[in-house]
Amino acid sequence: MNLELSLSSMMLIPFAAAGLALIHQGLGRSRSAAHAMLASLCALAVSAIVFVLFGASWTGYNGAAIHSFVAGGVRWDWLGAAPFFAQGISFDGSETAGLSRSLVLCFELMAVGLTATIPLSAGADRWRLGPICFSSALLGGIVFPIFAHWVWGAGWLAQLAANFGISNFTDVGGAGVVQVVGGLTALSVAWIAGPRRGKYSDDGIPAAIPGHSIVQVLFGCLLALVGWIGLDAAASILFYGAGPLQVVGVVINATLSASAGCLAALVITRARYHKPDASLSANGWIAGLVAGSAACAMISPVAAIEVGLAAGVLSTYLIEIFELHLRVDDPGGAVSVHALAGIWGLFAFGLFGHFSSGTRGGHILAQLVGISALLGFMLPLIHGGNLLINRWSTYRVDDDGHWHGMDVRELGAGAYPEFVIHADEFVPR
Questions:
Q1: 72 lies in a domain?
Q2: How many domains are there within the chain?
Q3: Rounded CA gap, 193 and 201, in Å?
Q4: Cα–Cα dist 170/310, whole Å
Q5: I need a labelling partner for 92 at 20 to 30 A (CA). Which of 26, 79, 129, 415 fits?
């Protein structure tokens, strides 16, 4: 039963990537729409191939060979040491263990592709296609496998209880492994690529650059819900032993957290601007999904609503803080919606989670250890790797590409050549 359930859940995950792709291109300019969609396909393709060839080895799986070291009297399980090129994994179903490893590989293949699409939002309208592919290769070959091993491959974060007597770090649906890692990559890309031309005036005031298709953004939110349910359900089954009844809880909680996040953003923008803001409400929807992924069915439906509400509130204000005060030009809000909402979700698991062992204080401490690993180790690793790529292949398109658009500059033709013209009177050239 769990085999069929996990496979059917995995088949839904590409809807999440499709939803994010629509959101990213809808919140960008019309003259970069085709580039945004092609970049989503390329990021998914490159990260998936590199992951299967190399990254899956570092990710490993429970019971496989590992790279470890001893420090402070504790053996730290640092990286997996499985064979490269997915060797040793059976796909004929002849062995239960081999079948299990193939299921995990299938899931992680899709999860890493979803992770690679998240940073595209922060680089919209200026991040070149070649560097996107190189950054996706870095993510699929090194960045994602490291943290995925720590959490899902029985690495040191999954051994905190045995080694330090607190509780194990928990990330059921990938709020940290997928969302925060992708969001931190988005932050790195936004830093390196810099703001879009005309985004900030000389005195630092940001100009509003509306997305070209809010309808596609909102449709992307509906697709994302379907994909998130598949992602959360498959991870719950594979790594936390969830059964059919727990998967029902995954569906309920994902829907509730997304709904609460959307409504929170809608109410806030209605109160502040006298009319609801559709793009911020869409961001609240995704933020609720992201935050709820940490616990999935391991919190009550009421707690899922509370987690989603807080995520919607946080994302709405954090998007403004990053844009207005920190001058981080993130057209799709990926840093706030994925990285920071994901961190909130990880912490919220310690506050609201259902535990079979350990104390609430121990679980909160374990979640803080995992968050510290993300910010203290993964962020410098991600940013350092992207800085090296940028020295070799410049991330930011030239000024001519900014004006003509990424479609014409990189693909040679626009997405809407017959009926869309430039409408940049609101942006200083």
A1: no
A2: 1
A3: 17
A4: 20
A5: 79
- In the chain, how long is the greatest CA-to-CA distance? 68
423 assigned to some structural domain:
no
Partnered with residue 200 across adjacent β-strands are 206
> What are 182-235's pLDDT values in tens digits?
999 999 999 999 999 888 887 878 888 888 999 999 999 999 999 999 999 999
Taking the C-alpha atoms of residue 40 and residue 348, their distance in angstroms, rounded to an integer, is 30
Give bridge partners of residue 76 from the DSSP assignment. Answer: 69
Q: Using an 8 Å Cβ cutoff, are 116 and 136 in contact?
A: yes
Integer Cα distance of 255 and 288 in angstroms: 9
**Cα separation, 332 vs 335, whole angstroms:** 9
Tell me, yes or no, whether 320 lies in a domain.
yes
Q: Which residue has the tokens 């810099």?
A: 194
Does residue 73 fall inside a structural domain? no
Kindly report the pTM of this predicted structure: 0.94
Render the burial of 173-204: b for 16+ CB within 10 Å, e for the rest: bbbbbbbbbbbbbbbbbbebbebbbebbeeee
CA angle 222, 102, 338 (to 5 degrees): 35
Contact 169, 343 (CB under 8 A): no
Domain that holds residue 38: 2-66+81-411
Closest CA to 395 of 94, 183, 193, 254: 193
Q: Which residues neighbour 361 within 8 Å (Cβ) at sequence distance 6 or greater?
A: none
